[in-house]
Amino acid sequence: MRDLRISHACKLLTSTSKPILEVCYESGYKSWAHFSKQFKEVKQQTPSQFRKLFIQS
Length: 57
Description:
single chain; mainly alpha; globular
């Protein structure tokens, strides 16, 4: 379930310009802290780092 939510978050981060907090909620998380921790565990980077790297590519 976690991987599915993080995958959805990645899709939103790369295909929209929605604020990261909105991406957090739309991915099924109710807490920013929990979302950020889970995202970093799966992707080894923060959501904002992930978005910046994608944009630079």
